[in-house]
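Schema walkthrough. Field components (list of strings):
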Amino acid sequence: MQIEVSGIEYSVNRFKLGPVSLSVKGGEVLGIGGPNGSGKSTLLRIMLRLMRPTKGRITLDGVNIDEMSQRDLSRKLAYLPQNLFSPLNLSVQDVLLASEYSLDKKNARLDDIIRRYGIEELKHRDFNSLSGGEKRLVMLIGAINQDAGAILMDEPDTFLDVDKEIQVMQEIMDIRNSGRSVIVILHDLNKLASICDNILMLRSGQVVAYGSTDEVLVPEVLEKMYSASFTVERISGSLRVDAHARKKS
Amino acid sequence: MFKTLRRFSGIQEHNKSGTIFIISILALLVAAVSSAFIGVVYISPIEVSRIFLSQIPLVGHYFSAGIDIEHQPEIIVYLREPHILGAVIIGAVLGVGGAVIQSIFKNPITEPYMIGISSGAALGAVLSIAVGLTILGVYTLQVLAFIFSALIVGLIYFFSLRSGRVPIVYMLLTGIAVSVFVSSIVAFMLYNSPNLASTSEVFFWLMGSVDTITWAELIPVALLSIASMFILSLYTKELDTIQLGEDYARSVGVKVESLKIIALTLVTVSVSAVVSISGLIGFVGLVVPHISRLLHGGSNRKVIPSSAILGALFLVLAYDVSRLVIAPKVVPIGIITGMIGVPFFIYLLRKLAGGYYAD
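Field assembly_structure (string):
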């Protein structure tokens, strides 16, 4: 699926986001990086039509998202929010059933996916009683289960144990290899380096850099983003980014 | 009993839920039938049963032959039956309404009265009693209570609109504010009312009672309520999804604003309808959905039907207590639901819910 974001702007109070333009093809991972408060989540929420931009348009396979029904949009874009809270005690299974609301063929895939992640024992637990990492995993499984053309993830790696983290990163690569698109917000520059085809860097709502991973993850760009010094080296084919405290001059 | 509840509460397997459903339905049936044995006039359970059976079409006349005691059939058929069935319908509607409102508001301490139903209905009732309006004959109070209840909810919804959407926090706060305003009007009208008799009548209505319900009142209310509850039960999946947040619900394809309009309309119609014939019976809408969640887990697939059954059961039992506690006087049922409901609920929360609800 082709995602086109052109000239998106959004402003509230003194915060101004954009203009942001980007494009993601099927089988591509776009990473969004930047310091806290740079507008990453806002951009993601605008793309999901959860917030209205003040300017600009977003199309999916050429169709403007404003012209799509809620159901059609959910078949194109799945969302992994930063957190999810169940105030009235849904079980893990209930939360996962919610994720496949607009799917036609139910359940078969869900059991499959629950088994694949080895969370059978969590199925009947109260979602709120899970640890942060377990919640994250269940939410990710929900987003994958939604079976949309693209998944928009807001920091999928937070709270995860290292083995689950590897599993999640592998899952993102699997989604990409199946021809679907992923847009993912990540703080960890090395994770951005390892899974993204392209990267968009935001700072205070403005695009600092947008391009291929090799183009964006260079010390000059990163030093504009963060007050630290960076070294970037290529070790056996993949980029490795190291941050150092900036020397006082 | 609580050990059993606790054991069930953590487990959400189908068979356990199924067993609890069967037990609750049987308990409701037994409670409803035996409730007809209680009353100022003693009528033996056997007589009551025969009167019940004599009402069954086609075969009824086999049972009616032995019933010869004067007035007894009338007491059962025209008094106890509509009162008990009224309690069943009202309890079910308040239970379901509570479950739906808590889902829509994503808040475990909300109930249908908080969106303006109670203050609106009270305004309608007071207009009819204190001001003495009789434009609609004997049903003026009921019709005005229903209309004003719906009007106030509509007004609160309208005030909460923000660019085509109703943010639920605004609706909750507007609901509280408008309710206080409307209650002030009600208090003013009562204060200014020429006769004190009307004031006591209003207070009696405000306390809630099923003891005056007639078949003529009950039938339209029951039809409206059953239709509303049936339609609401078709939205359990959407109501589960919206509990996880409106953004999340939208992202999985739920039309959140339409869902809110449909659910709020159906809750308003059904709860206003039952309140119009019973007055304000409190606490059922708050407590019953929680008991259902403790028994069946959080999904509305089970919480909604369970709240209907347990709401009905709770109100029938409360009605029994209301007739027995200072017999032959009948205490307004709303007093009983508060007296039984609150301590029971606090006990339940303390004993069962350690860590159950998230901070």
